[in-house]
Amino acid sequence: MSVEELPLPIDASPRLQALISQPVPPLTSMPNTIEGWRKFQREEDAEATKITRAAVEMVGATVDLASIAGVPCFRVTPRQVAAKNEGRLIFHVHGGAFVFNGGYAAVGEAALIADAFKACALSVDYRRPPDHPFPAAPDDVLAVWKTVVGEHDAAKIAMAGTSAGGGLIMTTLLRFEEFDLPRPGAAFIGTPAADLTKTGDSTYLNAEVDHVLGRYEGRMEACLRLYAASGDLKDPMLSPIYGDLSGFPPTILISGTRDLLLSSTIRTHRKLRTAGATAELHVYEGQSHADYLMSFPGPESQDALGEIAQFFDRHLRY
Predict the structure, then answer these.
(1) In a structure prediction context, what are the per-residue pLDDT tens digits for the chain, which is 318 residues long?
(2) Cys-Cys with 105: which of 48, 118, 150, 255 at CB 3.0–4.6 Å?
(3) Contact between residue 193 and residue 161 where contact means Cβ atoms under 8 Å apart
């Protein structure tokens, strides 16, 4: 079924309905040179930066550049920090198919979650392909985590990220045992890139209705393969759903019924539950990939951000 044949959800807000009504991205040719990818990346990051600046201004957050373990990061301070959250921190890893949303564009989601939870956030601006393919990104995230937990109580830190960010959080957690690192008190893994292969019902069923990702073939697959370089896409360091998820912290997952990565989110939730982890799954009617962010400040976005904030409050140490 195509997006034109699927009626709009009757309960969706006007803001969400406008998003849902957008056409599914067409299959277009992708860059076939490094310089072509660099140009594409610069263009996408510039547009994402505009959107991020608007979101940061809307919530009144303050953003400061920092360098941690040699990795550029952004410290995000919301307009209001709750007294009970003075010692708590959101450790954020941005999405963008592992290729996009670098620089200032990295902090958009962090600002929204920080505003909802009323706590400070740290967003990691990890290295990206085409210049820095795997394992540069997970190495950067791990390096920053090692430094942060040397200065903060890990039980007071929540990891948070959507799409590629969610996948990188999972990969980082898989590496904790190797380095004997403390785990965070909670995690938010939104519609994660937990499996870089074309696996799961939704990668087929939602290919013609996800207005953000569209089909697996095309832009998404090209970005994933650029990131993985010559790596096996089923390597747990690339597709963490194939790793051992036992010992993961309490985790909240969010997706939507039109999300191409709905199956990835559901499979991750079930694997976490099977591994004995506390895990909540929230699936929103009619939403495509990460619409719970893009529909901000609509009610559906406020609802999702509220669920994340409540989950963190329940599980992070004071």
Answers:
(1) 677 778 888 899 999 999 999 999 998 889 999 999 999 999 999 999 999 999 999 999 999 999 999 999 999 999 999 999 999 999 999 999 999 999 999 999 999 999 999 999 999 999 999 999 999 999 999 999 999 999 999 999 999 999 999 999 999 999 998 999 999 999 999 999 999 999 999 999 999 999 999 999 989 999 999 999 999 999 999 999 999 999 999 999 999 999 999 999 999 999 999 999 999 999 999 999 999 999 999 999 999 999 999 999 999 999
(2) 48
(3) no
> How many Cα atoms within 13 Å fall on the side-chain side of residue 88?
24
For 193-230, b where at least 16 C-beta lie within 10 A, e where not — what string?
A: bbbbbbbbebbebbbbbbbbbbbbebbbbbbbbbbbee
What pLDDT was estimated at residue 28? Answer: 87
Cα–Cα dist 3/6, whole Å: 5
Phi, psi of 252 (to 5 degrees): -110, 135
SS3 162: strand
Is the pTM value of this prediction over 0.85? Answer: yes
Largest Cα span, the chain? 53
Helix (H) or strand (E) holding 20: helix 14-20
Helices (H), ranges, 149-298: 164-174, 176-179, 202-205, 221-228, 262-274, 291-294
42 DSSP assignment: H
Per-residue pLDDT at 1:
66
b/e code 8-47 from CB counts within 10 Å (16+ = b): ebeebeebbbebbeeebeeeeebeeeeeebeebbeebbee
- List phi, psi (to 5°) of 235: -60, 125
DSSP 84: G
Q: DSSP readout, 254-271? A: EEETT-TTHHHHHHHHHH
At residue 121, what is the residue type? A
- How much helix, strand and coil, in percent to the nearest 5, is found in the chain? 45, 15, 40
